């Protein structure tokens, strides 16, 4: 039946696809997947934190009690009891979130894709932090926006710049807690000023919060969502507090936007796996996360301390870094003349990996920056890897 | 912390989002979810076919043996052993498919979305059957193509029309086996002519094949993929042969296209759930499907026969319908003056549901058509529902 010598196809990709690239991080991860590499590159949660037995029991229970429902097609907006759980978890302090404001998605990354699909036209102004989360830049760039990189300081975005540059923008994307890639946290006053500036401009404000629960020092700060539930789009995830491999996240927004996102999701993948949603609800409904999350915090806090101590011990004084109060990442600034992309090649030869800073900038990159993750590797390896990196840098001074 | 009286946001949706609509089918499904309704509307597989115990054992085995891998982030292109299994299952008869040609997706619907994202610009010509699968029209329409509805007869697409209308088109989308919505099957000679016409034009040909294994009469026909592996994009799914609620499908295509689709998938949702892919591989690797699929065939063949018999018994001779050799659907053509959309309102009052034919047409709809699914409801209910529909139609003659 096979045709003989058919003319080979010349693939003509869409304009949006022609500019698509594989994420720098995922390319680095391929190189560093060898077990002998000490990887500070990925944001891979430590498998030590995965509640395997809890998940196993939850799969078993759901399949025994409701197998035929769990394995059937389900509603696009998601599993009702889980949406209700999420709405309740975000309500309080005078704020009431209802399940109709919650859309379940196949990981936060899908939330980013759907939001851009629904809010961004070619050339639309999209505001991001300087630097910003690479995966968000990648998701948004498919829809060919004009990125505007909002100036930041050590406390995050500078809201007073928004009145100038935010006019007519379609959205502002921010990560107020333990930001990826910098690890920095936005203080309360800054949050209030940001929410007020966006409300003044009528500018949709995306609050991406995958790390909010991973707080190692001080108290969790109030969410932007609670400050203006009608203007903030909140994104949450089970990847960092339960497990990432199940791909489950959620978007919380005013109902008119949720309805539109639901239509986009229906066209994109019909719905997120019914079974996964039922199992996560089964696993967490009795308060499991309140006992589980502290164990993750303890593990990562120790690894964060180990990395900060090693940086102080082994890095030259001309390098500076952030001191995160939570999350997964530390952000380093090297002397101007050191290009972290070139440094990476040398580091990989020494079996140490990190992510260079440049891909996190929507506009003008700062090539002397880099991101270290402290969650994947245990303390002894952290010390060993940081020492090696320190020597490589010291040799360039 | 809550702002007092912030200005409400005026949501400005993207142009592509403004034209997005919820699928007619899913809206009908909401109405007909009540258990007292006899629904011929959805393509919901019968839960009787779900191998709940097999899936339960597979989840348990994977979580016990490889829990920490299964719950971790995974590669964007998918779980290696499952991609290899799929490549092997499609190889033979002089055709060799390699795992690098396989991309795992979160259900076939995501494959449709990614293909359009990567191949279709605004205004690109996209060729579809008359009528075509509604979910594909919905997925493609997000990228604002110019749909061209290719003429068909009882054997499917008319390939000799392609030389005229196919020039410069970005893709042709076809469902050769037990098509959704018509249930018709493309004979071998027609398949050869179609593949040759597309190869002549250098036109990418999407072969969507979710129902291929559900063959009730005769022998399975050769896949388009095998006729020209360099020009055909094959889409498969575990929804109809295993379970739909896990959302797992795959795209098989030449490597340059798979690499581009992989980049698009990375931006869209990073990857499909690791655990799901490992569990499906665990469930099927020892040949389970070769014993399981015949049980599905038997169940659906009986229900198909029951519906065909009831149509003959209760429907007036001025109504015609297809006699599918597999799949899930029968397509009806009513006398010209009957609008099936209006008929649906009356049918729902009688607690019977179906999908009107109009939404399946990319261009000029034929309002006197409708789709019946025979897989969701057991034979006695099929007879009862068809009798009610027959009376409603007879009353209009």
TrEMBL record, chains A, B:
Its cofactor is pyridoxal 5'-phosphate. InterPro entries: Aminotransferase_I/II_large (IPR004839), Class-I_PLP-dep_aminotransf (IPR050859), PyrdxlP-dep_Trfase (IPR015424), PyrdxlP-dep_Trfase_major (IPR015421), PyrdxlP-dep_Trfase_small (IPR015422). One of its GO terms (biological process) is alpha-amino acid metabolic process. GO terms for molecular function: pyridoxal phosphate binding; transaminase activity. Residues 49-389 form the Aminotransferase class I/classII large domain. The keyword Oxidoreductase does not apply. It comes from the Bacteria. Pfam families: Aminotran_1_2. Keywords: Aminotransferase, Pyridoxal phosphate, Transferase. PANTHER family: AMINOTRANSFERASE, KYNURENINE_ALPHA-AMINOADIPATE AMINOTRANSFERASE, MITOCHONDRIAL. Belongs to the class-I pyridoxal-phosphate-dependent aminotransferase family. Homodimer. This is PLP-dependent aminotransferase family protein.
